[in-house]
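Write out the 3D structure for:
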Amino acid sequence: MLVVIVAIAVAVVLLLVLAFAFNHLVRLRNETQAGWSNIDVQLKRRNDLIPNLVEAVKGYAAHERGLFDEITQARAAVSGASGPAATAAASDALTAGVGKLFAVAENYPQLRATENFQQLQSELTDTEDKIAAARRYYNSVVQTYNTAVQSFPAVLYAGMLGFRAREFFAADDSDRAVPQVSTTT
């Protein structure tokens, strides 16, 4: 009789430990999904601001048609990207295009002086800061989640229960390259 009671107690404790471990993995998986949603919201906000910015610059720099097309294509790529790696690459291309757009705007002081352009530029800068913060948060929760999924004892059952390591929102290889600076004119 005592053996049966001990066996039941061990089974109950084991089930409780597994339930707590499972719930921990679920919480971490949900945090990664929330982190990704934060990035997605900011990327959509940026995508909504960019057409207004392009239109503001178009009136002054109509001859920059290639740049406007590049930004439009990069914006579409961000909207159509699936997964962190593809979204990061498309987002980085869009950021580069917007940087070029700001460089073009530097040639038009009357454009830079307009309140509409200044407001758009300020909102876009703020959004870029929020995207960077959302990326850091997402990568932090992905690291915690991946560590939990790949650590003992979760590694024994996580895969069977559908918990898989998540992909980081990482910079593209071209973003890590050292920029070439020339001091000759």
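The chain has seven helices and no strands.
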